[in-house]
Design brief:
Shape: globular
CATH architecture: 2-Layer Sandwich
Distance between the termini: 14 Å
Number of helices: 2
Strand content: 25-35%
Helix content: 10-25%
Order of helices and strands: EEEHEHEE
Radius of gyration: 15 Å
Structural class: alpha+beta
Number of strands: 6
Oligomer: single chain
Strand order of the largest sheet: 1-2-3-6-4-5
């Protein structure tokens, strides 16, 4: 038997912030894409490093609401509008995941939603159980 916990988005009813599925075999958590800018936008300047840190903080908050943490992430997908500051992203990612980092993909799409210049999506599964 499996159970599903839906974490509603604080932004819109039509989005999920995250979803946790618990089965007899273990647990899976899927976190929606996150951005590192103010929501709603406040147009205050923010550095690339700050955006990356805010994004990872939002992912951490979503996971904690579902009784998990960053050490349970197995894979991340990152969308950057410009790959030039990739080394900065990689530095912060290394601080967030100092041991056993998840697999990671970085892409530079032709566009991003809204004015956000960076987004991190984290399809996750639990490493081990949290029961």
């Amino acid at each position: 038997m499996s159970t599903m916990r839906h974490l509603a988005s604080p932004i819109a009813k039509s989005f999920s912030e995250a979803l946790r599925i618990d089965t007899e075999a273990g647990s899976w958590i899927f976190v929606s894409g996150q951005v590192g800018v103010a929501i709603p936008p406040d147009n205050k300047p923010i550095s690339f490093e700050q955006e990356v840190r805010v994004t990872f903080d939002r992912i951490r908050q979503s996971l904690r609401k579902l009784d998990a943490d960053m050490d349970k992430i197995v894979s991340i997908k990152v969308y950057l509008t410009d790959l030039a500051p990739y080394a900065e992203f990689s530095k912060v990612r290394g601080e967030v995941f100092p041991h056993n980092p998840p697999t990671s993909q970085s892409k530079s799409p032709a566009f991003c939603l809204g004015h956000a210049s960076r987004s991190t999506q984290s399809p996750l599964s639990q490493r081990g159980e949290t029961r």
